[in-house]
Amino acid sequence: MKEDKRFYEGFEGEKKFIFCLYENGTPIEKLHLWEGYFDDILSLIPYSGKKWEGLAEYYQLALDFDDEHWKVPSCRKALEQLEAIDRHRMKYPRRSDCYDAVVELFRKAVSGKLDVYIDCE
Fold first, then answer.
1. Could you tell me how far CA 72 lies from the centroid of its own chain?
2. Alpha-carbon distance 31 to 40, whole Å?
3. How many separate domains does the chain show?
4. Which of 5, 34, 54, 81 has the smallest CB count inside 10 Å?
5. Which domain holds residue 72?
């Protein structure tokens, strides 16, 4: 299984979020993100004008990622939300490669009809 921990390096001991790509119930890839990068990305998902949905709903309504192995309900919707982010508004613009890695993971999920779960540690 491929694990990418470069977006958590230097933050060991702090809260992290792990995007897990699953194929047929088996994890095939994990992307570890420091909480600050996770917040930076999810806080920039634009409001649809109707209600929060998908990743944005969970994040903006402060639903708890901490207590569960959360399955992203629609990887296609999550990818659309992520691609709508204005990356120039990121607090950590030097780490836009982190944003790119998250988007790429969701592209793999959509193209391969795979599942994504988010874990918090």
1. 9
2. 16
3. 1
4. 5
5. 2-120
